[in-house]
Amino acid sequence: MIPAQFRYQRANTVEEALAALAEHGDEAKPLAGGHSLLPLMKLRLAAPEVLVDLAPLDELRFVRLDGDTVRIGALTRHHDLHGDGVLREHAPLLAHVAGEVGDQQVRHRGTIGGSLVHADPAADLAAALLACDGTLVARGPRGEREIPATEFFLGPFTTPLEPDELLTEVRLPRQTGRGWAFEKFTRRAIDWAIVGVAVCGQSVGLVNMAGTPLRASATERALASGAPIAEAAELAAEGTSPVDEPHATAEYRRHLARVLTARALEAAAA
Ligand SMILES: Cc1cc2nc3c(=O)[nH]c(=O)nc-3n(C[C@H](O)[C@H](O)[C@H](O)COP(=O)(O)OP(=O)(O)OC[C@H]3O[C@@H](n4cnc5c(N)ncnc54)[C@H](O)[C@@H]3O)c2cc1C
C-alpha cells in the first residue's frame, strides 16, 4: 500500500506551519504522529498534495496548570500525557485514558491534537475530553478561537477546523473533587473500543455509540435530578445511534453502554 505522491514540508515554528497551510489551502494537511493520517493515505482515502510536518514544534508539547485550568499542547503524545505528574494530579481521567489508547507504539507517536482533529467516533480521548468539559484552541490567519468540545465533533471525521487552522491547545477545568472512571470494552487488550464510557463527576462521555463521540445526556439529566446510578445508567443509550456490525450489533452496543455506564458511575462515586 503506497500513498499517492505528495510534497513534504517541515515547519519549524507555528507561524511557518500556518503560512504553509494558508498557502496551500485544502491541498495541505498537517502531520502530527501520522498514526491516523498515514494509514488513510496508504489506503488512498486521503491524498494531500502537501504534508506539513509539525514534529519540530516543541512549543506545542506541554502540560501546565494555569489557575484552575489545565492546558495541554496539541502535540503532546499519549505516552507523555499518561505519565505527566500535573495531569495525573489535576486531570486524572485524561491521564488514565491516554494510557488506554492502542499499544505502546501508538502512544509514543500519537498526539492528543491528532486524535481530536481526526474525530474518529471510536477515539477514547475525545469522549474523555467531553466528560471533562474541555475546550479546544485553534489558531489561524484570523486569530485564535476557542471551541467547546461539545461543539467540536460535527460528524465522523468532521470538525469545525478550517484547512488553514491548527489545533494548538486543549484546555480543561481542574478536576478537583470530581470522581472519575473509564470503562473500555474491547475484543483484545490493545484494540479500539467496541464501546467506552468516560465519567467525570456526573458527566458521561461515550466512545463509539454514534457518528461522533457524545455525552450520555439522558443519564446526566437523571443524575442531576437525583436518580440512583442504576436508574440513570439504564438511559445511557438514549439518543445514540451505534453502528451495526457482525462482531457487535447496535443492540449489543446499547447493552454495553448501559452496563459500562453503571460500572463507571459506581467506580467514580466510590
Ligand atoms: C494500531 C492503532 C491502534 C489505535 N488504537 C486506538 C485506540 O485504541 N484508541 C484511540 O483513541 N485511538 C487509537 N488509535 C489512533 C491514535 O490515537 C492516533 O494517534 C490518533 O488518532 C491520531 O494522532 P496522530 O498524532 O497520529 O495524528 P495524525 O495521524 O498525524 O493526524 C490525524 C489528523 O489530524 C490532523 N492534525 C494532526 N494534528 C493537528 C493539529 N495540531 N492541528 C490541525 N490538524 C491536525 C491531521 O492533518 C490529520 O487529518 C490507534 C491508531 C493505530 C494506528
TrEMBL record:
InterPro entries: CO_DH_flav_C, CO_DH_flav_C_dom_sf, Diverse_Substr_Oxidored, FAD-bd_PCMH, FAD-bd_PCMH-like_sf, FAD-bd_PCMH_sub1, FAD-bd_PCMH_sub2, Mopterin_DH_FAD-bd. It comes from the Bacteria. SMART domains: CO_deh_flav_C (SM01092). Keywords: FAD, Flavoprotein, Oxidoreductase. The keyword Manganese does not apply. Transmembrane segments: none annotated. Pfam families: CO_deh_flav_C (PF03450), FAD_binding_5 (PF00941). This is Carbon monoxide dehydrogenase. It comes from Prauserella muralis.
